[in-house]
Write a structure and sequence with these properties.
- The chain has a two-stranded antiparallel sheet with strand order 1-2.
- Helix 1 crosses helix 2.
- The chain is an alpha+beta fold.
- The protein has one domain.
- The chain is elongated, with a radius of gyration of 23 Å.
């Protein structure tokens, strides 16, 4: 039985060994870099925070961005759905009158 692949990431100066699902190496690395950037931004906005509180603020900022993007995505899907429905309706009417 072979060991699961793992990678070493650094968050707030602490190193963590993370077990990986095959094919997720790049995703984990990109996620760690995103989290470190968010922590840097949070540190700039909240210079008195450290450790867990800084991590919580960074997580909240990341989550609020995710919620915003999800709302934008949902709105865009609704617009596309409306366009598709309108196009299908026009095609159906054109076929009926042909």
């Amino acid at each position: 039985m072979s060991d699961s692949p793992s990678t070493l990431i650094s968050i707030l100066g602490n190193e963590y060994r993370i077990k990986l699902v095959e094919g997720q190496e790049q995703l984990v690395g990109a996620s760690a870099r995103l989290l470190n950037r968010a922590l840097g931004e949070a540190r700039e906005h909240y210079p008195t925070l450290s450790g867990e509180r800084l991590l919580v603020m960074a997580a909240l900022n990341l989550c609020s961005r995710q919620v915003e993007l999800q709302q934008q995505h949902d709105a865009q899907l609704q617009r596309f759905d409306a366009k598709v429905c309108a196009t299908v309706e026009r095609l159906t009417q054109a076929l009926r009158s042909a």
